[in-house]
Amino acid sequence: MSLNLTTKLPLRALLSAATRAGPRRCAPAASLQKNAATTLAVVRRFWTSTPHAATPARQEHLVHDASNAGQLDGKPARHVAVNIDGDPRVFDTVFLRDSCTCAQCVNPDSKQKLFQTSDIPEDLEGACRTVVDKEKGWVVELVWKNDVPGYGVEHRTRHSIDWLRRALTTELELRGGVRSDERVLWDREIITKNNKWVDYKAYMAEDEVLFDALSHLNKYGLLFLKNVPDSEEGVVDIAGRIGTLKDTFYGRTWDVKSKPHAENIAYTNVFLGLHMDLLYTSNPPHLQLLHSLRARAPKGESFFSDSFHAAHTLHSRSAFHFRTLCTFPVTYHYHHDNHHYHYTRPTIELFPYPKYSEPTNLAIRNINWSPPFQGPFEARIGGENQSALRNYLSASNSFEKLLSSEENMYEYRLEEGECVIFDNRRVLHARRAFDASKGERWLKGAYVDDDVFFSKLRVLEERYKGNWIADGVTRPAVK
Length: 479
What we know:
12 helices, 4-stranded antiparallel beta sheet, NE0471 N-terminal domain-like, Double-stranded beta-helix, alpha+beta, 6-stranded mixed beta sheet, disordered N terminus
């Protein structure tokens, strides 16, 4: 990683000097820029702040590093070097001050910051010493010069060595472009073998069962529940175990039934091709839930296809087609008397990665595919020398063949008392035509947003795995 300082000394010499100076240390980073003749002496005399009394409640937990005993020389600085695992690691004091979690800076109940980053003076300087906390282990304690207005000279900031080490690791992984991804790409054979059915009562009552179910849903994008009560509130209870339902112009829940003059093709009995819901909105729902209350009409089987699997296959066969689907704008709309939704997005959305780093995987974030709700194209639609639309036509044709190929689609007819949950930004769903004159087909539906789903998943990950994932980086549980 870049240490944001210039030095004429070899790195190995710096590390050797820091290691001999003691197992854990902190010092002004500028001291590491001195010449080779004085560096060893400076590093051995790593600076600590003037000793001060600890708060009574914590005093018994603090033990000074023995090699820090006595009054040492030093001056506050804008960068501080901390010895972590034998290496001098340099931190900007703005970062260390902004991350302070003392009760003066973060409300203990709400866990929200009580100051703004913009409140930190640009001439802020800090000085530190290392102490041992019986609860947190090695801790770097900082005092501030030119602190945030309103904070007195008694204000102290503490960061454990473990926390600083994790901060460095997270920064490196975020910059590296490598994403931790637990998703499993599937075709019909894989999902048939690995499909998961969860009992409703266990799902509702046991958090470990819920965690296993949501983890599977995150990996495969598809999950089934059985023995769901014959109640219109069943889907509300299932979604509520994850969090707040997404309310749309369809309502908190909605009925999938065949009816005359339907405002949505889903409310008919005709064949409905592979698609995703609400792509004409700025934040389409992450999860869709469908609870089968009546399944008495012949036919009406559901189909599911993993669009991520299709996209990866397309990339391996034609990188040009893949790039086309990442860049060509497709318009989706829903335009009726009382509702007018309109949004344009590419077929394939990738997670962003640093401009100075090539992605080490495809890092697909979302797929957008909903032909029934597609509007007229609004860009790259003409011109004798424009080939973009033709390129899109060719790429979308290849992609659709992968999506709808028999070996890539999973077919299942939902029976009464069963509920399917799927990732609406990944797993496409479709339906065969059915004969509404010979029986009722009634599904109760609901949506859950991505923020709600991942919040619940992270809470359970922290509880049962001791870590959680955000932005593709695995992080330890927050304590």
